[in-house]
Amino acid sequence: MPEPQQALAAALQRVRERATGEVVRGPDITPKDRLLLLKRGFLVEIIKGWYALTTPQAQPGDTTFWHAHFWGFASAYLRHRFGAAYALSAKHSLDLWTGNTQTPQQLVIIAGKGGVSKLELPNRTSLLIYSAKRNLPPATELKQGVQVMPLATALARVSPAFFRLSATTAEIALRLVRPDDLTRVLLSDVGTLAAAERLVGAFRHCGLNEQADRLVADLTAAGLEVAATDPFVAPPHLPAGLLFSSPYVGRLKALWQTMRPVVQNLFPSPPRRPDAQAYLDRVAEIYTHDAYHSLSIEGYQVTPELIARIASGGWNPVTDGADQERVAAMAAKGYHETFKTVLGSVREVLTGRPAAVVVSRDLPSWYRALFSPSVQAGLLPAHALAGYRNRPVFICGSEHVPAPHEALPNLLDTFFELLAAESSAGVQAVLGHFFFVYIHPYSDGNGRIGRFILNAFLASGGYPWTVIRVEHRNAYMSALENASVRHDVSDFTRFVAAEMTASVALEGPKR
C-alpha cells in the first residue's frame, strides 16, 4: 500500500495530466482522486462538474485563485462545449491582442450553436455566449488558450464606441496591425465603407499617416471612395507615428504618458540637494522602520516540483509552517544585506550620477542580496537568484494580473528608458515604484525592491527617505490597486507624499 504522501502525489500527477491550464472536468478524473484532492485542498470546484487544481493555501472566494485559473477554465470549457466553432467578441479579442491582462468581468463569446446563455462564475465574473454562426470569423488565432479574431478582423468589426471607451487599447492595436491585413479583411470579410473610413481616420488620429495612406490607396484601387472619419474623442496617449512589436510595451508607454502629468501636479517640488553623508547617516538611523511585506505571492500553481516534494515526503501543510522563525530570520538578513547594497547605490546618486543609470545597473545586485541568505540556508533553490520570474505571478487581493514572463525583458528595458528620459525626480520616484510592482518582474520581493526604487529616486531629488508604514498597508494596497486597475495614480501619489512627510519625523533633527 502506498504511503499517504505518495498516494496524494500520484493523484495530483494523474489529474494534472488530464487538466487544461490547471482546469479539469469531473468526468475526466476518477471519483477516488477527486475525493482525495478535494479533501486535501488541492482541488476546488469552479462550477458543477468543473474543477481547478490549486494548493491548500487557496481559500474559498479568494480572488487571486480565480485570476490564476480564469483563462484556463475559459479555454477548457469553450473547447469542450463548442470545439473550434467559437471566437471571442471583437472587443475581447482586441483586449488579448493588446496585452490587457485584467480578468474581464464578463467575457463575450460568439458561438456556432446553442442560442444565448450566461454562465455565472466565481468572483462575480461570467461568460456571455450567443449563437451567431454567420458572425464567426473565417479564421481564429489562440491567445491565452482561447480562440480570438485575428487582429485586423477585430479592428474592422469593433464598434465605433470602442475607440471612445477603450482608447488606449484601440491605439495599441492600430500600432500593431499591418495595413495590408486590414485591406484584406475590409474587402473580403467586413466589407463596410464605414469601418474603412473609421480606420483611416483612426490611423491619422495617431499620426500614422503612412499607414492611413496605404489603406486609402489599397481601397481606392478596389473601387472604394474613402473619406477619413476620426472615431476618437481624446488626444492620443502615445507619440505620433510610434510603432512597436510588443503590446505590453505599448500599454506601459501609454500609461506612463497618462499618469506623468498627474504625478507632476500632485507631488511636492524637490528640496535642495542634501549633503550626501548626512543624508546616508540619517537613513541608517531609521533602518529598523524600513521593512515591509512583499506584494508578490506564488503557490497557486501545482508544479512538477511540488508533486515531487509531496512524493518524497518533503512537503506537509502542517509542518511547513513550523519553521517560520528560520524563514523570517533569513528574510531579515536578506533585507539588511539589500539595504546596505542600496545605500551604496544611493551614495552614487547623491554625488550626481543619474539615478536611472544606477538603479538599472544595480537592480540585479539588490535582488541577489535580498534572497541570497535564503538560498544559502536551503530555504530557496539556487536558481531563484537567476533573475526574472519564468512563470505567471498573481498579486494577493488584486484584480491586476501582471504581464506574462515572456514580455519581461522588453518591459524592463522600456521601464528604464522611460525613467532615464524623465526630468522630474518626483515622477521618477512615484512611477518608478508603481510600474515596477505593476510589471512584477520577480517571483517575490517586488514590493520591497519597488520601495527601494522609490527611495533611490527620492534621494536623487533631495527628498527624504520614505518609510511606507505597515499600519497604512490597506491604504497603500488600495492606492496601488486604483492605479493598476483603474489607471488612476492620484491616490498613490498623495499617499507617497503623505508618507514622505511623516518619515521626516522619524529621522529626527537634521545635523
Can you give a write-up of this model?
- The protein has 511 residues and is of the alpha+beta class.
- Among the domains are: 4-58; 151-243, no CATH class; 247-318 and 339-350 and 389-507, Orthogonal Bundle (Fic-like fold), CATH 1.10.3290.
- 53% of the residues lie in helices and 9% in strands.
- It has helices spanning 4-18, 31-40, 63-82, 90-97, 151-157, 162-165, 167-174, 179-188, 193-205, 209-221, 247-266, 276-285, 304-311, 324-350, 355-376, 408-421, 425-439, 446-460, 473-485, 490-507, and strands at 23-25, 43-47, 50-53, 86-88, 106-111, 116-121, 125-131, 141-143, 146-148, 296-297, 394-395.
- The strands form four sheets. A four-stranded mixed β-sheet has the order 4-5-7-6. It has a three-stranded antiparallel β-sheet with strand order 1-3-2.
- Helix 1 crosses helix 2, helix 8 packs parallel to helix 10 and helix 14 packs antiparallel against helix 15.
- It is flat, with a radius of gyration of 25 Å.
